[in-house]
Amino acid sequence: MARAKKRGISAGTVFMLVFSLCTLLAAGVVYLRISGDAAYIRLDSALLSEPLREMAGVPVSDAGESPQPSLPAPASATDAPMQSPTASPTPTATPRQPVTLLAAGQIALGSQLRESGLDAAGAYRYDDIFSPVASTLSGADVSLVTLRTGLGEENFGNYLAPSALARSLSAAGVDLANLGTDRLLDGGVAGMSATVAALTGAQITGVGALREPTLVEAGGLCLGFVSYVDSLSSAGQAAASEAEIAAAVRMLDVQTVQSDIAQIREQGADVVVVLVYWGSRSDTAPSDATRQTADALARSGANVILGVGPTSVHALERKSVVSADGYVREVFIAYSLGNFLIDDSRETRDITGLMLSLTFEWDEANQCARISDAWYMPTWIMRWRDEAGAYRFRVVPAGASSRPENMTESIYQNMQGAYESLVNRLGEDAARPVAQ
């Protein structure tokens, strides 16, 4: 009987085995890439020959053990089953919350005020001046003052104050500083830029420089601020060219305001606040021309008009404007907020200022913001001499129920009289008075 031949494994068979293993490996890699995080493959390199480990990219250890690839552990039988991917929920708009704007009057530091902040080490600091009203400033969502002075580090004057003033305002809770006054360019474009930089360094946004509007987001509402000036000081006109003035300052013009308001609305502003430096410093009430301008600004689309310029507080007014679609829009006008901090006068009307609070809420039915609350607090610029005979200043609530520290009884009586006179003049039609 013939003996059966002993058959070996042919080269073709070895090739097919190697090819099959490579195909399985490649399929696993493709599946992993397609499935992403939803699946994984754990590869035991010990089951592969050395050539296949090299093809799979698995390194060979010197000790002869195959290192484990860094892959997540397989799920156990007790793990929760994998959930099918679900669609992400449609994002909802951020709910709009009531937003409060707090606006105070103008600030200018003369020599007495400037030197009152100088300490023994030769540094300037003005935190104490604003301490009695800091809680009111910081309690608002957005707080605003007007700076009728530049900021710098040297060569100070009546309209150039130490930049430390910005840091003290920030510490008191001020968010925005309106620079749109007649003194904006007293130091030229360079001086204006230095002022903006000092404010920025103190985390305060400067408004009214370089003709740029300012948008502020708060509580889901967008407040837009634009600032205008009806005249520049002679120093400002001398320090800047016509081209620089045109580039840096918004001069008050109704057509310009209309265009700017339309633009800022397109940029998303729900509330438009127009800041305007107008009138004469000695005005004790808004002139007919000022009222006509305010009416035109209201019809141009402003929600709020805040005036500065005159040294005394002027009337508050709510005006109803009917839009083209018949909706009645309410506009709040403060013709002059007066002085917040100055030292060039001790006349009662010049040292009595106003802090105005306006709260805005979203009117869902009419898809616009409206004023839901308004109040004002008269302020008083207090001055006294310390033990060394140096002047000290504080801004205090004029309606304080008790005499502030370092204030004489006669001055306290004068302040109370000024408070009552101002409340009687402003009344409660536009905003209710409060005393702190």
From TrEMBL:
Pfam families: PGA_cap (PF09587). The keyword Membrane applies. Coiled coil: none annotated. Keywords: Membrane, Transmembrane, Transmembrane helix. Residues 58-96 are annotated as: Disordered. Residues 100-344 form the Capsule synthesis protein CapA domain. The chain crosses the membrane at residues 12-32. This is CapA family protein. InterPro entries: Capsule_synth_CapA, CW_Biosynth-Accessory, Metallo-depent_PP-like. The keyword Membrane applies. Residues 84-95 have a biased composition (Low complexity). Belongs to the CapA family.
